[in-house]
Amino acid sequence: MTLSDEKLPHWHYEGPDPLVKQARYGNVPLGFPPLDGPNKMDLGGYVRPNVSNTQNPKGRTFFNLGLRLMLSYQHEMASKCFLACLEHSPYCVLAHALVALCHSPNYNFKGDAYYESANHPHDVQIQDLLCTFPSQQVADRHSKAAVDKIEYLRKIHRKANKSGGGGKGKKKGKGKQQPQSAKANNNGNGTENPDDENAIDETPQLISDLEAKLVVAIRVLCCQPGLSPSLSEEMVGRPYADAMRKVYQKYPNDPDVAYCFAESLMVLNAWQLFEYPTGKAVSPDVTECHEILEKSLKLHSHHAGLCHMYVHLSEMSANPAQALEACKPLRCEFPHAGHLIHMATHIDVLVGDNENCFRYNYNAILADEQSMRFSPQTSGKESFYFGYIVHNYHMAVYSGILGAYEKKSMELATKLSSIVDEAMFVESPYLTAYLESYSALEIHTMIRFGRWKELLEIEPPKDKKLMLYRAASIKFARSLALAALGDIAEARKEADRFDSIRKQPDAEDRILHNNSVADLLAVDAAMLRGEILYREGKHDQAFVLLRTAVKLQDDLNYDEPWGKMQPTRHALGGLLLEQGHVGEAEEVFRKDLLFHPRNPWGIVGLLGCLKKKLGGGCCGSGGANAEKDVSAEISELEEQLTTCRKSDYMDFDVVVACECCKRETN
């Protein structure tokens, strides 16, 4: 369907009157979920009280939905809801400001990535619904409209007061003189015509002091579109956080203010809040943010935004489990908010709850399938939110690999590969930079579960340059498989082909969330060459390279889940144990279980070390007491392994730490 300019919102200013006027497209703007009925989105019941100038029922309904969507990080759909609110309640200044905030940096899209890709000067002359999302120009436009409307409202109320509308006994700003635009849409007696779909609010009121201060703060963030990324923190990011601090200091009990302030600080330090894994805060911002969130959650324990930010704050800290209470509302109170449901699993994976990690990512996938049906324009493959959708699959498959859920992992990994397939990137090659790295999950799943012969049957992509990560992963997998099956010569050839692909310049520009594909494939390269050397009997050289792979993995940027699908310590520890290096293998597995608590692969590896230690009389000078301690730890680990095997999803019998090891070892 081709949409004419007349049917889409268009912004324009008329001299001193800064009111923004919008045309309508049908009853609601393009691409909206239904507001009622069986297919409406269920994002919980949170309502911000006392939003100025939202007397119009539809305007208020769209505002509520927009706010819930924004807190759910479905920013594009949220911005459309705020636009719809403005069609029904054009004096809702806060809606303008929140449109701007939706188009602004957030915890997952900030810094160079945001300021380089969200600058669209042509959007200045384009209707909102035709602008690329997110757009600095749209943020500027709406934040300016918000500030301008505040001044306009003050102006008309000053006139009303001077003309006697605000006489003795009336509160300031409560006069009944109306601007002509409001008069035109009522029935002549100062009330809205209930039969008029285009009816707007009664006499617009002055907005609250809180809203005015929030609007001014958001304007600080959005007032310089096209700003150089290198100047963004100094010119807008830090000033916005400072402005939000002032709003928070005056209104510390308002949950949305606390959320906006906390997020402003977190964006400045995104994904680098703490030194990992020491848990030391990287800046005073982090300490301040921690205080804000903990204080606010005591007052508003179920606020989606506060819970969301607290999970991100805690996941890199020394105590991620502190966020488990905040995870409870995220799991069950926002049925169609896929990203919120998923967020709880950032903590699950860190505390070793692979079953919950898989279950709630699966639930998030189902929730986002609803979103894709409700609003394909804002949740489809070319939408910004689609990155969050594939992230759910990634985390689910990762937890399935770690928890030994072979069938479920393969099911989801194969499904994702059919979604982010070569045809998708042929049609939209600009998506490769940040989505093509999700196209090989089933390959890594097959490696984890030792499906060597099946891996040799996978067809390579037609365009190996376009599908760089998948092409490289297939060569990596084939080389591992050939080495495991004893064909060392062919394994070396495939390893050479893998190197030729991974060293292509495009690998530096591809990302998997917080890491480049080049860095991820460098880990694979060291691991692969180490395993080939091991199969040749060159064990010492092999262990040097496998230790290098472990270090390279540890040096990757912090991410959830880890960028490397299979912990490299499993291969190193398993092969060290196989060659009788029990002490080093034990150390390797203990470190692995610090990073990945209660994972069956690490447990099996450590059990193998402790049993060899006990059976070989290698418990040191501690004698009987040392043997007793080792026996007690073995019993504890076996109990943990039994618990793992009781999972509804675990269907793979883990008997070695890595399928590259000989199964008879344990």
UniProtKB/TrEMBL annotation:
Gene3D superfamilies: Tetratricopeptide repeat domain. InterPro entries: TPR-like_helical_dom_sf (IPR011990), TPR_rpt (IPR019734). It comes from the Eukaryota. SUPFAM superfamilies: TPR-like. Residues 160-200 are annotated as: Disordered. Residues 177-192 have a biased composition (Polar residues). This is Domain protein.
